[in-house]
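Board notes (copied after class):
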Amino acid sequence: MNQLVVGDLTLMVRESSRRKTLEITVGREGELTISAPTETEEQLLRDFVTEKRYWIYQKLAQKAENRRQLPRKEFVNGEGFLYLGRSYRLKLVEPSTQKAPLKLVAGHFLLRSDALPNAREHFVSWYIARATGWLNAKVEAHAKRLQVEPAGMKVQDLGYRWGSCGKGNRVYFHWKTILLPRHIAEYVVVHELIHLYEPHHTPMYWRALERAMPDYEGRKQWLVGHGIEVEGM
């Protein structure tokens, strides 16, 4: 079963043999996912969704309001673009002044005017390149401290997730992680590394995360409350 429809709610079903509890997550774009142990009876899933339906409606309404209020970025002179929590103003420059379509120089993003039709793609490529280097360094440092061994790290578009711990002990991060303040991006890194030995968000997981990052709760709440601010990109 890949999908579960309960009334007016449609949820993607993710099953795992390692999971022992049911969990519902609401994505940044309002996607609903229910994670469950392998071969969980459909009626149990339906009952769980019914029990949580008012919480789900609350979350969906909050996501919709956040998206409604969020201004979309415009690729014009003076527009601000985030990088590690700081906003840098965009400046359009003549093609003859630089080889790269996009550069960050002296506190400004410099975008060649002839690259304007594909401006978003150039920004995404720039962010992915910077995120790969920055996050890889953080993964290596924290993995050594936590005595875990990720098989690899990759930056890509993860949809509604900031990070993911995949099969084979590989960790993945959304490219937008590099837009977050440094200490919040670092929380995302540690959050995923803890999943290497605690796959699910059990009480044991949160205790392990607290040992690794005693102030994680404040960082987590910042991400919940302010993470939407990077979504206008």
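Comment from the instructor: The chain has a mean pLDDT of 90. The longest helix spans residues 119-146.
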